[in-house]
Amino acid sequence: MKIKQICSITSGINSRRHPQGTVYFLGASDFVDPYTVDSFMTPGLLASSKLEKHYLRAGDVAVLAKGHHGFTAHYINGSLQPAVASSVFLVLREIQAEVLPEYLVWYINLESTQSQLKAYARGSALPAINRTILGDLKIDMPSLSIQQDIVSLSRLKKEESRLIQKLDDLKTTQLEFLLKTKIQNNEK
Length: 188
Fold this sequence. Notes:
By secondary structure, the protein is of the alpha+beta class. The chain is built from 4 helices and 8 strands; from the N terminus they run ββββββββαααα. Strand 3 and strand 4 form a beta hairpin.
């Protein structure tokens, strides 16, 4: 099934940030990971009736459409409201009920899918994909329960990676402390 068959695809907006803004303006660097927006982000656009139709809703998926580091998909959980995506994103919305937005994020972020998107990207100075390229991307659609299992396993894998990194950091700190203590004891 193609992405354009399961959701609508819109473009992010091009606008200038404003210090007195009340609307969050999401750029590529505002995501900590594909499921988390930087909690220290501040609003950057002035609200207007023109912006309202671009407001992101919980369950939307923002796909980075420009850049050298791939076309990462991000799940919008609705924690920052109101918010709009900048023009570096394509936004998947009105996703059919039998498709989990988190599954779309997982699928688009797979290395094999990223390789496919990079192969179709246009431009050499700044590779980019457009609505047509993203819309024509074929996606394997298992049952909703399998999608839920995949999303759960993906979250567990990410948590495992985070914990392994934390453990490695703690071991490094412990080793540094032990070695410094040994050096200081030898100097006395």
